[in-house]
Write a structure and sequence with these properties.
Rna Polymerase Sigma Factor, Chain: A; transcription regulation; 2 domains; globular; Arc Repressor Mutant, subunit A; mainly alpha; 210 residues
């Protein structure tokens, strides 16, 4: 997940110390520690934070016309992270958990604002873009929509775990820290969630789920 370091130029010794080779990715914690002194570390940190936030927002929104909202949420998360960095204190939790907390709050704010405002209206393009192929695109969209719809039938905790583990790409330990659970509990819940999702997909393929 995220970008990799490609050069030693401008990288602080602290960030480089944990890398086994020049292009090894630094952890978010290392990047956050170096961001105040190193513009390259700051840029990589923001790129990876934005990637995390965007993936999470897209899955949680999961409906047509939500891309602009997801992009806005990701941008606000980046701004909030940069604002908080000077006073951020590590308290034994991964930096990913810190980012998740901000993202969840910003997404909730965006959803409340959307409920109060008018329904979004999509722009109609002047010309039809048929690449890479309308049929293939339609099939992929249908499959993605089906998967997201089926995930909504899972219990909230299982849905959140799959979102963080599969869509965002957090590790078991990072997901556990973000949700205040033990890694073992995350593994058990994820196993149950995947089993339930497989059953729902099988039922859907037989026409049992609309």
């Amino acid at each position: 997940m995220g970008l990799a370091w490609t050069s030693r130029a401008g990288v602080t010794p602290g960030a480089l110390g944990a890398m086994e080779r020049v292009d090894a990715p630094a952890s978010l914690r290392e990047l956050a520690a170096a961001a105040a002194r190193d513009t390259q570390a700051r840029d990589v940190l923001l790129a990876r934070v934005r990637d995390m936030a965007l993936k999470y927002a897209r899955v949680r929104l999961g409906r047509f016309g939500a891309e602009d909202t997801a992009q806005d949420v990701a941008q606000e998360v980046c701004m909030a992270v940069m604002t908080a960095l000077p006073t951020y204190e590590e308290r034994g939790l991964p930096f990913e958990a810190f980012v998740y907390t901000i993202t969840a709050r910003k997404l909730a704010d965006a959803q409340r604002a959307a409920m109060r405002g008018p329904a979004p209206v999509c722009d109609i393009p002047d010309e039809v873009d048929e690449s890479p192929g309308p049929e293939s695109t339609a099939v992929m969209r249908d499959e993605a929509a089906t998967a997201l719809a089926l995930m909504q039938q899972l219990p909230a905790q299982q849905r959140e775990i799959l979102t963080l583990r599969v869509a965002v790409g957090l590790s078991t330990d990072e997901t556990a820290a973000a949700l205040g659970m033990s890694p073992g509990a995350i593994r058990v819940a994820q196993h149950r969630a995947l089993g339930k999702l497989r059953a729902l997909m099988a039922e859907s393929s037989r026409g049992g789920v609309a």
